[in-house]
Design brief:
single chain, 278 residues, alpha/beta, eight-stranded parallel sheet, two-stranded antiparallel ribbon, 10 helices, 10 strands, globular, binds phosphoenolpyruvate, binds manganese (II) ion
Length: 278
């Protein structure tokens, strides 16, 4: 049987470098993405952008269309959120990543954003994968909460076969049996992914843990283990976040994490980093 992910398969030690505006994934660095779960107001997303930029973060995140478990929870600003995050990123020199929740969101997200996120719930939504791929924008593909690594790679393959080589994979926690963390951060799985594929792999410690106290140690673990980056939920006023408040960190914590990530990466010498990231 052919490998279901022959374009994604790792055949050489070289990791594919994916660019999203000025953000670089897979070059041996650690791309730190920060921003709120949901775009709420211009002031909120601009303040988040200022914090990401001053911490030396690579990219701004924020959701316009939120895939909430309950239909009674805040669903995001929708289309109206896109100009707000584009404006915030633009004013602070940051590229932006936003999730397209449905095929109909793809053209607008591609027009306003540097990278399109495909969320965990949509990992195997083939028409959405194809539509996002066809825009030519780099894609941040999140692992489904119950998806195997092979299924994630096969989903990435749908993007690659469309002729779009710019895919970054994201481990965001898989479904476990213990309530103390929202999901299980599968760090071992993320490292195994790097053995299986040449695509960059990042960690989302926020959805993986659901707890703000765990964001820093998980991000530092990802940096020390040789992953290619992290996407972290950060809010200017975490307690007031309209979405995922329990896992939101503040700007000060984000800046400290960014500094400590740099210290961790500096502590790895080149041969160690090469061994870890290939
Ligand atoms: C998000 O990044 O805001 C999000 C909803 O993530 P996930 O698809 O991993 O749940
Ligand atoms: Mn969230």
């Amino acid at each position: 049987m052919p490998v279901p992910y022959r374009l994604a398969e790792r055949l050489t030690p070289i990791t594919t470098v994916v660019l999203a505006g000025s953000a670089v994934f897979g070059d041996g660095g650690f791309a730190l993405i920060g921003g709120p779960c949901a775009i709420e107001t211009q002031e909120q997303i601009s303040s988040a952008a200022a914090a990401v930029a001053s911490a030396g973060g690579a990219m701004l995140r924020g959701g316009a269309y939120k895939p909430r478990t309950s239909p009674y929870d805040f669903q995001g600003l929708g289309d109206a959120g896109l100009p707000l995050i584009a404006n915030a990123g633009g004013s602070h020199g940051l590229p932006v990543v936003v999730e397209a929740l449905a095929e109909r969101h793809v053209p607008l997200v591609a027009a306003y954003c540097d990278m399109i996120q495909i969320g965990a719930r949509n990992m195997q939504n083939v028409p959405l994968l194809r539509a996002a791929a066809q825009t030519g924008r780099p894609i941040l593909l999140k692992r489904g909460p119950a998806a195997t690594l092979e299924e994630l790679l096969a989903a990435a393959e749908y993007i690659l076969v469309e002729g779009n080589p710019n895919v970054v994979l994201c481990e965001r926690g898989i479904r476990g049996f213990d309530r103390h963390t929202r999901n299980v951060a599968d760090l071992g799985g993320a490292l195994r992914l790097k053995e299986l594929t040449h695509l960059p792999v990042i960690l989302d410690p926020s959805h993986a843990s659901g707890r703000r106290t765990l964001i820093e140690p998980l991000t530092l673990a990802a940096a020390a283990a040789g992953l290619d980056g992290a996407i972290v939920e950060m809010h200017p006023a975490p307690e007031q976040a309209r979405c995922d408040a329990a896992q939101a960190i503040d700007a000060t914590t984000f800046a400290r994490i960014a500094a400590r990530v740099r210290a961790v990466r500096a502590a790895l010498d080149e041969s160690m980093l090469f061994a870890l990231t290939t």
